[in-house]
Design goal:
- With 149 residues, the chain is an alpha/beta fold.
- Helices cover 42% and strands 19% of the residues.
- The chain has a single domain, classed as 2-Layer Sandwich (Nucleotidyltransferase, domain 5), CATH 3.30.420.10.
- Helix 3 packs across helix 6.
- The protein starts with a strand and ends with a helix.
- It is globular and about 40 Å long.
Length: 149
């Protein structure tokens, strides 16, 4: 099963393509990612959705929400896009909606066999060797969409 997931941001977004054998991930500017979205072929397409927690938000959140809609609309099948809130990802991976980014990263590393196997080294890179920054959140989205979608 091939999964595509996006961790959206106001100007850049993390993305991950996950299938049974490989991971491709990156961080791209939103305009470039938007141009790529219509060409993505996958079994499930997930985008992290913004959820209200009763607190005031700034312009960055509204910009992110606009990009979520643009990515969804640009996809091959907008109605089938999974819009998954962050708390669902945290609950799925860490069994608590209060987990932080470090806990999610550690859980992903554990899922791939621990640090030596998942990250590896420059000479012997593991499947998560090049994953960094927003790519971790996108990978977490992809795994959640695959297992809990």
């Amino acid at each position: 099963m091939k999964i595509c997931a996006i961790d959206p941001g106001p100007t850049q977004s993390g993305w991950c393509m996950l299938d049974d054998e490989a991971i491709a991930a990156g961080v791209s500017d939103n305009a470039g990612l938007l141009a790529w979205v219509p060409h993505i072929v996958c079994d499930r397409f997930a985008i992290e959705n913004v959820a209200s927690y009763g607190m005031p938000v700034g312009e960055e959140v509204f910009a992110t929400v606009r990009w979520i809609g643009r990515f969804q609309q640009a996809s091959r099948d907008p109605e089938s896009v999974l819009l998954i809130p962050r708390k669902r990802v945290l609950l799925h991976l860490c069994n608590t909606p209060r987990a932080n980014d470090a806990a999610v990263r550690q859980r992903l590393i554990d899922l791939y066999g621990g640090k030596e196997r998942a990250i590896g080294s420059k000479k012997a890179p593991g499947p998560l060797y090049s994953v960094k920054s927003h790519m971790w959140a996108a990978l977490a989205m992809a795994i959640t969409a695959k297992e809990d979608g």
